[in-house]
Design goal:
- The protein has one domain (2-227).
- It has seven helices and six strands.
- The N and C termini lie far apart (62 Å).
- Residues 4-22 have low confidence and may be disordered.
- Strands 1, 2, 3, 4, 5 and 6 form a six-stranded mixed β-sheet that branches.
- Helix content is 60%, strand content 23%.
- With 229 residues, it is α+β, with helices and mostly antiparallel strands.
């Protein structure tokens, strides 16, 4: 009887340890996902990507925002003969706009813990998340809105004409250009801030790398559900 009881206890212990291992995998993966979205909520895209594998397949396109800002900064630097101080001001305002835009993409989120699953080999975990924020179409529509650029142009046209009429220096004209660019980004930001949220679902697949869970794939599905989140 004692031997039989010992065998039963050993079997129960194995099952118990197996269950704990799986739960730990889920919890560890969900912790990584929580850190990922917390960074996005703060607009820290670069910090969020550190939680992903180098070959991550990412459908949420947050990188388009930062890439477009980098391209815009480079184009402005070559189009205008800005000095170092002016270049830095343009870079700062563009980067701040990119950061604030990423924050608008993830205004709030919730991990669907009941849907978290571990594969049989326990080397992959799938985590589902519901996010509320703006979508890529909103970003594109705002930054491509000709009425915004036309309004900014009309606002500063008299000041630019006055500078040119008074033989202003290149530095004075470029100072005005920096002011215009700053106003433009701030206007874009205000427009994005005022947009309603869209609820979307994201499914993240995490894989073990160097004994650490990393986000390997992010799939996105969007649905019509606008709220004032």
């Amino acid at each position: 009887m004692k031997r039989l009881l010992a065998c039963v206890m050993a079997v129960l212990l194995v099952f118990s340890m197996s269950g704990c291992a799986q739960d730990t995998s889920k919890q560890d993966a969900e912790t990584v996902v929580t850190k990922y979205y917390d960074q996005l909520k703060k607009g820290e895209f670069d910090e969020a990507t550190k939680l992903c594998t180098s070959d991550v397949s990412d459908d949420n396109e947050y990188g388009i925002i930062t890439d477009s800002m980098d391209q815009m900064i480079e184009e402005m630097s070559t189009s205008f003969d800005f000095n170092d101080s002016q270049n830095q001001k343009v870079k700062d305002v563009a980067n701040q706009f990119a950061k604030n835009t990423v924050k608008q993409y993830v205004r709030s989120y919730e991990i669907q813990k009941d849907d978290t699953s571990v594969n049989d080999d326990k080397d992959k975990v799938t985590v589902k998340v519901t996010i509320k924020g703006i979508d890529m179409n909103s970003f594109t529509n705002v930054t491509n809105d000709a009425s915004i650029t036309n309004s900014i142009q009309e606002k500063y046209e008299p000041k630019m004409e006055s500078l040119q009429a008074n033989n202003a220096t290149d530095e004075q004209i470029n100072d005005l250009m920096v002011e215009i660019i700053t106003d433009l980004f701030n206007t874009y930001g205000s427009k994005l801030d005022g947009l309603k949220s869209v609820e979307r679902k994201e499914k993240l697949t995490l894989a073990k790398k160097d004994n650490t869970w990393k986000i390997k794939k992010i799939s996105v599905s969007e649905k019509e559900n606008a709220t004032n989140a």
